Amino acid sequence: MSQTIKIKKGYNLNLAGKADKKVVDVGQPELFAIKPTDFLGINRPKLLVSEGDNVKAGTPLFFDRQTEEVLYTSPVSGEIVEIVRGDKRKILEIRILADKDIVSESFVKYSTSDIQQLETAKAKEILLKSGCWVNIIQRPYGIVADPEEAPKSIFISGFDTHPLAPSYDVLHQGEEPYLQAGIDVLKKFTSGKVHLSLNASEEIPKIFSKVSNVEIHKFNGPHPAGNVGTQIHFIDPINKGDVVWTIQPFGLIQIGKLFLDGKYDASKIIALAGSEVANPQYYKTYIGASVKKFLQDNLKQDHVRIVTGNVLTGERIKSDGFIGYYHNMVTVLPEGDQQKFLGWLLPPVGRPSLHRVASIWSFLNGSKPYAPNTNLNGEPRAFVQSGAFEKVVPIDILPTHLIKAIMAEDYDEMEALGIYEVIEEDLALCEFMDVSKHDVQAIIRQGLDLLKNS
Amino acid sequence: MKFLQNIIHSVKPNFEEGGKLHKYYYVFEAFETLAFQPETTTGHKGAHIRDANDTKRMMSMVIFAMVPCLLFGIYNAGYQHFIATGQEADLIPMLITGTILVLPIIVVSYGVGLGIEFTFATIRRHPVNEGFLVSGMLIPLIVPTTIPLWQVALATAFGVIIAKEVFGGTGMNIFNVALTTRAFLYFAYPSQISGEVWTYLGDKTTVDGYSGATPLAVAYEASSKGTQSVTAALSETNTVLQSDFYSFYNMFMGFIPGSIGETSTLMALIGAVILIITGVGSWKIIVSVFAGALAMGLGFNAVGVNEYMLIPAHYHLVMGGLAFGAVFMATDPVTASQTELGKWIYGFLIGVLTVIIRVVNPAYPEGIMLAILFMNVFAPLIDFYIVKANKTRRLSRVTV
Predict the structure, then answer these.
(1) Which of A36, A147, A343, A369 reaches 20 to 30 Å from B61, CA-CA?
(2) Predicted pLDDT of residue B130
(3) Which pLDDT score, from 0 to 100, does residue A1 have?
């Protein structure tokens, strides 16, 4: 057990609508979808199924022509009902009408001791074929891991500090053996360590209470302390040329189930949260579920924004849209498409701010959680302010300079300023607080794409 | 509210794509967003909620922080007029005289500057940035009351175009716009912006024995004669008006001749408190400018080869425009150092340079203007080394 790492810079947004710690059954949604756009780094997906085909959970749906070994598989069994395409026939969604009882493709079962004996090459083959490989995210770039490259080390964040983040105790109840099996499998792939970071200021979720074969680190502090990017920086930072893997506990559990039970199990618990949800709570479903059923009769009003993921990094979906592949929550916010008379001058009641010039009025809100809407709260302007981003970025990079280097498309400067250490989520708070209203996260991704494709 | 909203909505189509006034969309946008924060929402992916703060709120707070200096400047313009011409007057006539003197300068500064901003925004097709709202108020506060309005107009145009627009507009400029304006006046009309220009006399004449020289000019004069100490010279000046006219107290309060808004250290400090509490101005810069000036003043005390060097170090903080410059000019986030450590260095060197220019260079009685412009040039260099240190830390990890 190492020392607690204290994070001072950052901020916890106190938002309304945290999910009650109960899992509710409203029946399974009929429709599920896999969205190739959820996987960063996919360039040219090649479909393996067509409309009308029947699939099982774990049946390959498509692969990327650049890395053909990595298969992207179906979360449920059922029929492919629609392949939604966008501009230039880009594949947006592969929609599956689910069976009542989900049947999985069958894979070889291993006992705990078998897993110890298992060869890395064989494990890789099973992971790739089943679709579980997709859970492994590689840094730099935050893309699905390249099977050809061995990671320097593997990082797991054991807590989530995003606004309204779900509790890992609810998400992963009783799945300790699977988590351990997942860790044991992945440990084979690195000559380095597997790092697990836990929150020092709260009770350790039960799922991690007996975990072994990992190096445990403790972090204390506000968001983004729970971001794996922050943790990597303090544990074993990424330098140019390094490759590390990150994976969510859900991914490990899914891998564990694949090896211990011999099936592709995409079942997961998701949280429905946000100020506009009447009963914020948890639901048991599968990857890629349609949110329609969870939102039905459960919204306080109609004029809302539905976000898959959290409010800082998530993606907007329609009321019958699908949960993102890596997401474990859906957030519902009031839509903010209204003008505000002298909104820049009057006290910003009910609108959170990290700048004292606005947060000086926060006493008007008292200690109650905020229910902010999606208004931009201003107009896009030239970069003017300095020194603000630095207060919410705990890692030793200079956010403003990095962002400007990306905007200037200066490759050497981006590298030197540490772009390999970050992905979008690591600078999400900067995007939130920017008075010039830049899309900071999109800029970061643009920079990563430039370097990846250079 | 609803009424105003309806008017805006009814004229808006003219300015939008396809409307006949589309060319002027950004002019329209500037006025619309002033009245109503727009209905724009966050994008498809990323942060779906945004901070309540925006550049308008930030900039308006700077203007708010300048209000004490402005009000005192108006009062002092009238006060100096009446005291120099030897008339008794109450507060109200002083304020009226001051307002008549100051208001036209503000109108000209904003009129010319915003006119240019709107023109450039229209030609370049970008939104009007709020930056000039601050510069437009700063300019009147750093010129003498007697300045001809055409000079204000010309200098403002020079400042906005040469110091800002040629660099690409707000956020890209190297020099502080207001100070460039002031420097233009200083170098283009040297004889008209020094000497007895600080006090408006109108058709009256001064009382016998009155000198309109600023404390800095008196200090320089005394030092070059070398017959008495600067403090003695200061306290002997204008004794015909009142004893100890240039006392530390009067200089701190600002009852002295000088540029409109710069005389009162107290008012600048009130502004500083507002900027620091709201987090809009960098306290690091403000504190380090004062620290730099004090340190250099004490340094000169120790050397002490002439009378100017022997002036008590704290006098430097209340004479001339140091306080005003430290609070409102040095903190300009665009032209200052952009790194946190850099801000300490940047501010400290401004303080040091100000005092050096005052004491050592006989050509320029006031140092803060040139010190800040000079450090504007060096801010990127300071940042360069601090950024380089960050890069080096990252590179040095690789070998471990």
Answers:
(1) A369
(2) 86
(3) 52
Q: Domains of chain A (ranges plus CATH)?
A: 4-25+105-261 (3.40.50), 389-452 (no CATH)
**Distance of alpha carbon B310 from alpha carbon A166, whole angstroms:** 67
Contact (CB, 8 A) for B32 and A379? no
Whether the Cβ atoms of residue B131 and residue B58 lie closer than 8 Å to each other: no
Given A343, A348, A386, which is nearest B36 (Cβ)? Answer: A343
- Percentage of chain B with pLDDT > 90? 61
- DSSP string across B85-132: TT----HHHHHHHHHHHHHHHHHHHHHHHHHHHHHHHHHHT-PPPTHH
Q: With CA atoms as reference, report the closest residue to B269 among B23, B80, B69, B101.
A: B69
Question: In which band, very low, low, confident or very high, does the pLDDT at B400 lie, cut at 50, 70 and 90?
Answer: low
Contact B326, B347 (CB under 8 A): yes
The CB density around residue B398, as the number of other CB atoms within 10 Å, is: 11
Contact of B135 with chain A, judged by CB distance below 8 Å, is answered with: no
In angstroms, the separation between the Cα of residue A356 and the nearest Cα of chain B is: 5
Q: What is the ipTM of this complex?
A: 0.93
Q: Which residues of chain A have pLDDT under 50?
A: none
Q: Is A417 in contact with B391 (Cβ distance < 8 A)?
A: yes
Alpha-carbon distance B400 to B391, whole Å? 15
Strand-pair partners of A137: A144, A246
pLDDT digits (tens, 9 = 90+) for A337-368: 999 899 898 999 899 999 999 999 989 988 89
**What distance in Å separates the CA atoms of residue A179 and residue A197, rounded to the nearest whole number?**
14
Closest chain B residue to A336, measured at CA: B41
Q: Strand A304-308 and strand A315-317: pairing?
A: antiparallel
| Confidence band of B203 (pLDDT split at 50, 70, 90) | confident
Q: What is the DSSP letter of A32?
A: E
In the 3-class helix/strand/coil scheme, how is A63-114 assigned residue by residue? EECCCCCCEEECCCCEEEEEEEECHHHCEEEEEEEECCCCCECECCCCCHHH
Collect all residues of chain B within an 8 Å Cβ-Cβ radius of residue A418. Answer: 390, 394
Q: Please tell me the distance from the alpha carbon of residue B238 to that of residue B30, in angstroms, as a whole number.
A: 49
What span, in angstroms and rounded, lies between the C-alpha atoms of B290 and B324? 11
CA distance B388 to chain A (A): 9
Burial B228-241 (b: 16+ CB within 10 A, else e): ebbbebbbebbeee
Q: Assess B53–A contact: CB distance below 8 Å, yes or no.
A: yes
Question: A209 to chain B, minimum CA–CA distance in Å?
Answer: 33
C-alpha torsion angle, residues B221, B226, B229, B231 (rounded to 10): 0
Q: Is the dihedral of CA B65, B66, B69, B70 positive or negative?
A: negative
Contacts of B27 in chain A (CB under 8 A): none
